[in-house]
Amino acid sequence: MDEEAPIYTRETANALLDEVRERLARLREAYARIAGHQVAVASKANGNGGDAGGSAWMEASRTAADELAWFARLGIVVRDIEQGLIDFPGRREGRDIYLCWRRGEDTGLRRAGRSGRYPSPVLLALVLLVAGVVVGLLRGGSLDNISAVRFRLPWLVFVGLGLQVGVEVAASKFPGIQRGVTGPLVLAVSYAFVGAFVALNARSPGALLIGLGLALNLAVILANGAMPVSLWALNVSGSQAAPHLQHAVKHRAKGPGTRLGFLGDNIPAPPLGIVSVGDVVLGAGVFLLVDHLVAPKKHP
């Protein structure tokens, strides 16, 4: 029978930090030796197997494996070896959370929240939507003006956004989704729904910006298989959503091999979290659209 994964409190996790620092230091050193050593050196060992380079590589590999096994036995998740980012699984009010610690931090652990998608782009769009309403009202408009507008097939956008949220929630509970074709396929369909709505209503003010924002986000997602997320931006913004990236469909941690990285989630937007260039452009389109809907109508 499998042992139940340990659940940590701040106290029990903090009690392990001294040993975590030591083991993480050995793990980072081992990985540095492995990365700096060409695998070809080991294959060129002399006839008696006494090649010093090959032996050092094997020793570093064993050390890395031993340290990773220790973290795994204790249920501690190593997110980023170079940055020294680790998470202790915990629970609060019946919900699964992570207690986050990064190398160099001496102030203990921080709550990393539930293992789900950070809502920064949604919050940004919501803030700009409200701003558009306020500006429209200040210009003498009325909320009643919205009811006079008729969009073509408005259900498309709701279905599209619902699919995006749904697949991310499902991926956090069923990690296999993000390794198969189901998650990316659902994501592509969701963008098709939203894109179709934008195309059908392209004459509305802000619609083209919304479409451009979607296109920018879609371009970087297609180039990488997911939206690259800057861990630096997460840290600067105060967001601790990095733990969920392991199982996310739409998001992955940004790395050296990331394509079109400048279009990823790189912009810190405290207290919202982080957003991408596409999110900003899309949010601007939402602002213009809502302001137009609320503002007083000009009669000929």
Structural class: alpha+beta
Strand order of the largest sheet: 1-2-3-4
- Report on the biggest sheet: 4 strands, antiparallel
Radius of gyration: 24 Å
The portion of residues assigned to helices is 40-55%
* Secondary-structure element pattern, one letter each: HHHHEEEEHHHHEHEEEH
User: What general outline do the C-alpha atoms trace?
Assistant: elongated
**Count of the separate structural domains:** 2
Report the average pLDDT across residues.
76
For the termini, the CA-CA separation is 77 Å
Q: Which consecutive residue ranges, at least 5 long each, have pLDDT under 50?
A: 38-43, 45-52, 113-118, 241-247
Number of strands: 8
Share of residues in strands:
5-15%
Walkthrough of the structure:
With 300 residues, the chain is of the alpha+beta class. The chain folds into two domains: 10-113, no CATH class; 120-294, no CATH class. 51% of the residues lie in helices and 12% in strands. It has ten helices and eight strands. β7 (267-269) and β8 form a beta hairpin. The longest helix has 22 residues, at 52-73.
